[in-house]
Amino acid sequence: MNQTVELRQGLTDLLPRLRRLARALTGHASDADDLVQIALERALARAAQWRPDTRLDAWVFGIIRHAWLDELRARSRRSRVFAPEALGETVGEAAIDRHADAMSVATAMATLSDEQREVVALVLVEGLSYRETADLLGVPVGTVTSRLARGRQALQHLLGEGS
Fold first, then answer.
1. pLDDT, tens digit, 9 for 90 and up, residues 84-138
2. φ, ψ (nearest 5 deg) of residue 61
3. Domain 1-82's class?
4. Is a pLDDT exceeding 90 seen at residue 140?
5. CATH 1.10.10.10: does it fit domain 93-163?
6. What is the 3-state secondary structure of the chain?
7. Do 15 and 36 form a contact (C-beta atoms < 8 A)?
């Protein structure tokens, strides 16, 4: 099979997983859809960089991760100029309402640090091994292990399943 055809078929097969990872990273369906689109465009534009003897999912997960980091940096620059719209949404909201919202998994995931959320999404949601995750993120396996442990502990605490 032609490498380009193999890549396109592989990307199509990965769409549900790509969207799930993007949703875990962004916390919003519309941002996740945009992130997947950006990642697919980059993957297709850089098709020659993918080697068929490597895992396509790990390669594209890396593209998604880097695209998300680019977006976070862009948002950081924009937020220095304008106040985020989300700040106005909670004005006057009772503390009890905020606590009730924190009970959803998506909200709990959003409270994790970027590093913990990435590791939780890649290991627990996408099923990558600790080694694959470490290679993808460019960190030691021990770092993945500790970030995952702290992320799990935080999620259990937020969801009322621990302590």
1. 555 555 555 555 555 454 457 778 888 889 899 999 989 988 888 999 999 999 9
2. -60, -40
3. mainly alpha
4. yes
5. yes
6. CCHHHHHHHHHHHHHHHHHHHHHHHHCCHHHHHHHHHHHHHHHHHCHHHCCCCCCHHHHHHHHHHHHHHHHHHHHHHHHCCCCCCHHHHCCCCCHHHHHHHCCCHHHHHHHCCHHHHHHHHHHHHCCCCHHHHHHHHCCCHHHHHHHHHHHHHHHHHHCCCCC
7. yes
